[in-house]
Amino acid sequence: METIKELTKLSNGKELDIVYPIRLYDKDCNEAYFESSNGDWYKIEYKDGNDVYFENSNGYWYKSEYEEGNEVYFEDSSGYIDDNREPVNMTIEEVCKLAGRKVRIVE
Q: What is the spatial distance between Cα 61 and Cα 52, in angstroms, rounded to a whole number?
């Protein structure tokens, strides 16, 4: 992802005079983007007031899912997963339809 500094560089190589840190907010006044003068940045996406995605310039990210305001799923770039979602009950026919092809149950 390009930083604000990279995006605003002029074709002649000069840079705009930008005041740091840069903070951008979404329509609900949640901080959606931050960038410091050294190029470090992070962005956050929200759904219903909950942060559902985070990513930063170091390559770290996480994503979350919520049900009724409670976090039920969390996964991050280190491989950590915390899954507390309710299992979905489905017939084999529903699984096949969802998969778009025949499914063989392997135990």
A: 11
CB atoms within 10 A of CB 41: 20
Average pLDDT across the chain, whole number: 90
Domain boundaries, given as residue ranges, for the chain: 4-99
Question: What ranges make up the beta strands (E) of 1-107?
Answer: 22-25, 31-35, 41-47, 50-56, 61-67, 70-76, 81-83
Q: Where are the beta strands (DSSP E) in 36-96?
A: 41-47, 50-56, 61-67, 70-76, 81-83
| Paired tokens of 89 | 């009950």
Tell if the pTM clears 0.85, that is, is over it. Answer: no
